[in-house]
Amino acid sequence: MIPGGRAPEYLRLNTRVLGLVSAFAEADKPIAAVCHGAQLLAAAGVLKGRACSAYPACAPEVELAGGEFVQLEVDQAHTDGNLVTAPAWPAHPAWLAQFLVRLGTRIDRERRPRPSFLARLHASRPLRNACARPPDGGLILVACGVRARP
Questions:
Q1: Cα separation of 109 and 53, whole Å?
Q2: Cβ-based neighbour number of residue 144 at 10 Å
Q3: Domain extent listing, the chain
Q4: Active site residues
């Protein structure tokens, strides 16, 4: 999972990080990148012939690396094989959902736990919860979103 923001600008200067990204791509392991994360993908040379989304200012880098820049709404994500990308943080729900699919995770929307510490913390705001359960029945991931007040 490659973060956005300014981190990729600096991470792409580290040859060990570039090697790790390249190794994941060569092994066809799932890779998720958001926002400026495409800078790291481009520097690692893994975008040639791939389509990806990113923060719009990164479009030239995606194209110079031989990739196809996918223009999306800010809250959407794009999947190309094992690569899941998104333009910015508002896409986190779609981006993570698509990445979880690449990881083989099954989303169970019928079970809706409400962690008590979050319920107390956001007592005045309704919570929307979702549970993700890996196919092997192991760990459960709980993702909670808070609706913004009008």
A1: 27
A2: 15
A3: 7-102, 106-146
A4: 35-36
Q: Is the dihedral of CA 39, 53, 59, 7 positive or negative?
A: negative
**Torsion sign, CA atoms 61, 9, 75, 138:** positive
Look at phi and psi of residue 5 and say left if phi exceeds 0, alpha if psi is from -120 to 50, else beta. Answer: left
> 7-102 belongs to which homologous superfamily?
Class I glutamine amidotransferase (GATase) domain (3.40.50.880)
Per-residue pLDDT of the chain (150 residues; tens, 9 = 90+): 999 999 999 999 999 999 999 999 999 999 999 999 999 999 999 999 999 999 999 999 999 999 999 999 999 999 999 999 999 999 999 999 999 999 988 766 666 655 555 555 555 444 444 444 445 444 433 444 433 333
